[in-house]
Amino acid sequence: MTRMIDIYSILPVMIVAGWALLLLVVDLWIPRHRKGITALLAAIGLAIALGFVLASSGNTILGFNQMVVLDGFSSFMQVLFLVSGMVAVALAYDYIQRMNINHGEFYVLMMFSIAGMMLMSQAYNLLMVFLALELLSIPLYVLTGFARTRLESEEASLKYFLLGAFASGFVLYGTALIFSATGQLDFVGIAAVVTAGSANSVLFLIGAALLLVGFGFKIAAVPFQMWTPDVYQGAPTPVTAFMSVAVKAAGFAALMRVFLVLFPSLSEHLTPILWVMAALTMIVGNIVALAQNNIKRMLAYSAIAHAGYILMAFVAFGNGEVVGNTVAATLFYLVAYGLTSFGAWALVIVIEREYGKGILLDDLAGIGKHYPWLGVAMLVFMLSFAGVPLTMGFWGKFYLFRTAVQAGYIGLAIIGLLTSVASAYYYLRVVVYMFMKPGEPKLQINPWVSLVIGVAALAVLLLSLIPWTILELASRAVLLLQ
Amino acid sequence: MEFGINPLVLMTFFPLVGVLVLVFLAPQQKNAMRWTALGTSLVTFAISLWVLFLFDPNKADNLLVQIPWFRLAGVPIQILMGVDGLSILMVLLTTFLTPIAILSTWKAVEEQVKGFMIFFLLLEVGMLGVFLALDLVLFYIFWEFTLIPMYFLIGVWGGKNRIYAAVKFFLFTMAGSVLMLLAILYLGLQAGSFSQPELVANRSLFAGSQLLLFLAFAIAFAIKVPVFPLHTWLPDAHVEAPTAGSVILAGVLLKMGAYGFLRFNLPLFPQASVQAAPVMAVLAIIGILYGGAVAFAQKDIKKLVAYSSVAHLGFVMLGIFALNPEGLSGGILQMVNHGISTGALFLLVGMIYERRHTREMSEYGGLWKAMPIFGGISLVVVLSSMGLPGLNGFVGEFTILLGAFGSKVLGSPWFAGIATLGVILAAAYLLKMFEKTFLGPITKEENKSLKDLNLREIITMVPLLVLIFWLGIYPQPFFNLINPAVEQLVQLVQSAALVLH
Amino acid sequence: MIPLSWYLILAAVLFSVGMFGAISRKNAVAVLISIELMLNAVNINILAFWHYHSQSLGYTEINGLVFAAVVIIAAAAEVAIGLAIIIAVYRLRKTVVASDINVLKG
After folding, report:
1. Which among B301, B429, B434 has a CA at the least distance from the CA of B357?
2. Whole-angstrom distance, CA of residue A316 vs CA of residue B322
3. At what angle do helices A392-406 and A447-465 cross, to 10 degrees?
4. Closest CA relative to residue A429, chosen from A325, A302, A318
C-alpha cells in the first residue's frame, strides 16, 4: 500500500527523474543551435528539486516499507548533488558547444545520474543501493563517452564501463552473500538479524568485504583507483568535474550508510583493511600526482588522494563515540572539496582550447600576469586543496585529522599530514607555472564558467572565516542508525 | 576599552586597508602604490607605538582580545590575542622593519609593484598575528599564512634560482608545521581548549606525552629558526629573495621560530624543555660554529650574511635553552639585535647590488674611497653584527653567554666557553668581508664611478643606526619591557625542573 | 535433494571464473561476457538461497525473486550500454582489443 508519506519521502528524486524524462521529449523540439534552452530547463528542474529537498529537510521518514529513508544525512547529500548538478550544467553549457558535442541528451543523462545519486543517499535496502548505483553509473558511462568522435573519450568510456560493471558485480555478490547470511535485504531486517546473533558470520563478513571492494571502485580508493586517471582525462571536462565531486560524494554516501548501519559489529575485521586502504590511497594518490604534467591527470590523482583523507576519518566507523564526528567531518569535507574541485576544473575548462588540448602545466604560464584575478582564484583552489589556512580545505582537513586523532589513529594522521606536504609540491607547481613563468595564455572565457570560478573562490575564502555555517549543517545532518 | 576597537586588532589588520587601496590602483601608478604601502606600514608602526604606550610589562594579558569564533566538535576556537613581554619587542620589530624594507624597494622593484606591495602588507598581517595569537589554532593559521606572501616574494621577485628557493622554503616550513598541527589537535582533544593560557594552566592533562608534543612543536619551530641541521632552506631563500624579502625574512620570520619556543614549548611542556635543553644547546652551538665556519668560506656577500644568521640564531637558541632569566632575556634582545643588524646588512648588500649587479666580494675592494658614507654606515653595522662593546650585538651576546655560563639546566660552563669561539669566528668573517670590499685601493674600473648613497637610502639606514647605538649604550628600557615576563616563565620552568629532580 | 552449499559453491566458482575472465581477457566483448557471468553467478546464489530460505520458513518471501529480476534487468541495461560503447570505439579504432586502445597515458 503506497501512502502519501512514501511519495513525500522520495519526492525530489521523482521530480528529477520525471523532469529528465520530460526533458528528453521536449528536447526533440529544441533546435541544435539553441540547446541552451535545454540547459536552462535542466537547471530549473534541479532547482525545483532543490526547493523540495530544502522544504522536506529536518524530517526523518522511513518510506516504502523501509526501502528508503529520508533523514538529515540524505537531505544534506541531496543538496550537494543538486548543486553539483547545476554547477556542472553551467560548466557544460559553453564547453559542449565549443567541442561541438551539444546534444540535449547531455543534460538529460546528467539529471538521471543525479537522480541515482539522490536515491543512493536515501537507500535503506541493499536492493535499492544496487539500483541507485546502476542508475547513477549507466548515464555516466554514456556521458564519459559523449564526445563520440574523440577516441580519448570513447576509450575512457570503455574503461569506465568495464571497471564499473566489474565493480557492480562485486556489490551484487556482496549483497547476495549478505542476503544468504541474514535472509534479509532491508537494513532494518539485517540489523535485527545481526543483533539477534543469528547471521552466518563468515558469509556476512565476506559480503561486507565485497561491498567494500565495490564502493572502493566508486570512490576511487587504492587499490581500486586504476580507472580514475584515464577516465578523468578522457571524459569531457565538465563531466570529469561532476564525477570528481558528485560521484565521489555518492560513493561515500553509500559507504557510510551501509557501513554505519549494517557493519559496526564487523569493525574489528574491517578497520585494519580500511586503515591500509586509507593509507595507500593517500600515499599513492599524492605521490603519483607529483609526476603528472597533464592537469587533468594531476587533478585525478589529487581526487584519489582526497578520497584517502576522507577514508582516514572513516576508519573508525565502528567506534560509537567518534562516528558522529566522522559523518560531520566527511560532509564538511565534501563541501569544501566540492567547492575547490569545481573551481579548479572550471579553470581547466577555461584553458582547454580543443578537446584534450592545452591542459598541460606549460599552458598555465603567464596567467598570473595576464589574468590576475583568474590566477588568484586558482591560487585559492590550490591552497585549499593543499590544506593551507584561510581556505575551506584547511578546516576540512583540520576536522578530518581531528577525527582520526580522536579515534586514536595517530599513525594514519601522520601519514596523511606528511602526504599533504607532498601534495603541496604539485599544487605549488601549478602556482609556479601561473605566476612565475612567462607566457601568453589563450583562454576561452565564458561568463558562466567565470561565475563558477568566482563564486567558488569567494566561497572557499569567505566560508573559511565563518566555517561554523557549514559545520552546523554538517553536524545536524545526522544519519539514521538503528 | 573606550576606543571601541582593540588596538591589537587594529594594528594587526590595518595593513589590509593598504591592500584594499592597492587593489584599486591602476598598474602604471607605481609611485602611488609605493606611497600607499609605505604610508600604511608607517601608520601600523604608529599604532604599535600606541600599543607600547598602553603596555604594562607586569601584566601577562595586556590588551587581551577574546572573541569566540566557533566550536569544532565542542572545543572552542577563539580569536584570542594579547601582548606581553615576550612578544612586545617582536611586534615593534615587525612594524619597524616593514616600512624600512618597503622604502628599500623604491628603485629595486619595478616589475609588478602592485603585487609586491600587496604581498608585503599581507606578510605584515601574518607576522603580527603570529606574535599576538594566544589561541593555538589561530596561531597556526597566521603561521601558515605567512608562508604564502613570502613564497611569492621569493618566487616572483627573486633571483635566478628563485623558484627552487621559494618551493623549498614553502615545503620545509610546511613539513615542520604539519606535525605541530597534529600536536595542536591532540592538545585540543586532551584539554578541551586551544587557548594557550588555559592549556598552560591545565598542562597536567597532557603531561604524560609531553616529550613527543615538545618534539612536534620543536621541529616546526626549529626549521623556522633555523636550528642546525634543518637550516638548508635558509641560504637558498636568502640569496634568491629580493632585498626587502631578505630583510623581513632575517629580521622577523626567523624570530617566529624562536618566539614559538618561548611562547609554546617552554610554558606548555616545561619538564620536556628541561630534559631537551642540553640537546638543544648542543645543536645551537653546532649552529654557531657551523654557521660561522661556512660564512667564512663564502665569496658571495649575501650568502655570508645568510650563514651569519644561522650563527646568530644559534646564540638565541642557546640563550633560550639556558632556561634562566639572563639567557632568556638575552635571547629575546638578541632576536631584536639580529633583526636590526642583519636587516641592515641585507639592506647594504642590496644597495651595492643595485649599483653593480653582483655580490661577489672579489668584484669590489676599496669602496670606502668611492662611497665614504656607505663605507661608514657599513662599518658600524658590521661592528654591531660582530658584537663590539658599545653597540647592540654585544649586549645580547654577552647576556646570553652569561646565562649559558651560569645555567643550572645545562650544568656546564663549557657551553658558554665553546659558544665564545663563535664570537671570534664572527669577527673573523665579518672583518674579512669588510676588508675585501671596502679597504685597500680600488681595483676595478667600474667601482670608481659608483655613486654614494642618496637621501632615500640614508633615511632608510638612519633609524637602524640609531637603534644600534641606543641598544648598545642604554639597553635598560628594553630589558625592563621583557624582564617581568621572562621571570615568570623561568619560575614556571624551574618549578617543573624541581619536580623532575 | 541437492544441499544449499553446492549451489553456493557453484555460484562462487562461476563468479571466480567470470572475475578471472574479466581480468585476463583483452577483447572488450569477452570482458563483457565475463562480467555477465559474474552477474549470473550472483543470481544462482540469490535464487538458491531464496528457495531454501523460503522452505525453512514454511512460506514464500518475495524479496529474493524480486532481487533476481532486478539483477537481470540491470544486467540487460548494462549490456546495452556496453555494446554501444564498444561499437563506438570500434568505429574510431577498428579494434575492440583493450590493450590496443591506449591513447590515455600518464
Report:
1. B301
2. 44
3. 50
4. A302
Say if C77 is an interface residue toward chain A (CB within 8 Å): yes
DSSP state of A263: -
Res. C105: pLDDT tops 90: no
- Judge residue B198's burial from the number of C-beta atoms within 10 Å of its C-beta, 0-12 exposed, 13-18 middle, 19 or more buried: middle
What string of H, E and C letters represents the secondary structure of B129-175?
Answer: HHHHECEHHHHHHHHHHCHHHHHHHHHHHCCCCHHHHHHHHHHHHHH
Q: Give me A201's grid cell.
A: 558470520
Contacting residues of B for A389, CB less than 8 Å apart: 140-142, 144-145
Q: What is the least distance, in Å, from the CA of A84 to any CA of chain B?
A: 26
Quick check: A414 and B70 CB within 8 A? no
Which chain A residues have a beta carbon less than 8 Å from that of C32?
162, 165
Asked if residue B143 belongs to a domain, the reply is no
Residue A85: name the closest of A130, A145, A136 by CA: A136
Spatial distance between the Cα atoms of A58 and A63, rounded to a whole number of angstroms: 15
Q: What is the mean pLDDT of chain A?
A: 92
Judge whether residue C60 has pLDDT over 90. no
Number of domains composing chain B: 1
Please give the Cα distance from B259 to B475 (Å, whole number): 20
For residue A1, pLDDT over 80 is answered with no
Flag if A401 and B181 touch (Cβ within 8 Å).
yes
| pLDDT exceeds cutoff 80 at B176 | yes
Q: Is the pLDDT of residue B368 over 90?
A: no
B contact set with A (CB within 8 A): 69-73, 112, 115, 137, 140-142, 144-145, 147-148, 151-152, 155-156, 162-163, 166-167, 170-171, 174-175, 178-179, 181-182, 185-186, 188-189
Residues B334-350 have a mean pLDDT of 93
What digits encode the pLDDT tens for the residues B263-319?
999 999 999 999 999 999 999 999 999 999 999 999 999 999 999 999 999 999 999
With beta carbons under 8 A apart, name residues in chain C contacting A123. none
Cβ pair A156, A235 in contact under 8 A? yes
What separation in angstroms does the CA of B141 have from each of A405, B43, B182, B388? 19, 24, 14, 39
Is A388's CB within 8 Å of B148's CB? yes
- Rg of chain B (C-alpha set): 22
Establish if B469 belongs to a structural domain.
yes
Residue B179 belongs to a domain: no
CB-based contact B145 A389, cutoff 8 Å:
yes
Contact criterion met (CB < 8 Å) for C35 and A162? yes
**Separation between Cα atoms, residue A306 and residue A327, nearest integer Å:** 16
List Cα–Cα distances, A22 to A78, A86, A97, A105, B421, in angstroms: 21, 18, 23, 12, 86
B181 and A394 within 8 Å at the Cβ level: the answer is no
Q: How many CB pairs under 8 A join A and B?
A: 87
Q: Is residue B3 domain-resident?
A: no
C72 and chain A in contact, CB less than 8 A: no
- Supply the range of the domain harboring residue B480: 269-494
ipTM surpassing 0.90: yes
Distance (Å, rounded) from C-alpha B387 to C-alpha B404? 17
Please answer whether residues A242 and A85 qualify as being in contact, where contact means their C-beta atoms are separated by less than 8 angstroms: yes
Q: Which residues of A touch C89 (CB under 8 A)?
A: 151, 154-155, 157-158
Taking contacts as CB-CB distances below 8 angstroms, the residues of chain A near C53 are 183
Q: Give partners of C (≥3 CB pairs < 8 A).
A: A
| Contact between chains at B155 and A436 (C-beta distance less than 8 A) | yes
DSSP 3-state of B388: coil
Rounded to a whole number of angstroms, the distance from the CA of C84 to the nearest CA of chain A is 9
Full-model pTM: 0.94
Run of H or E residues at B71: strand B62-72
Residue A458 CA to residue A461 CA, distance in Å, equals: 5
pLDDT at site B1? 42
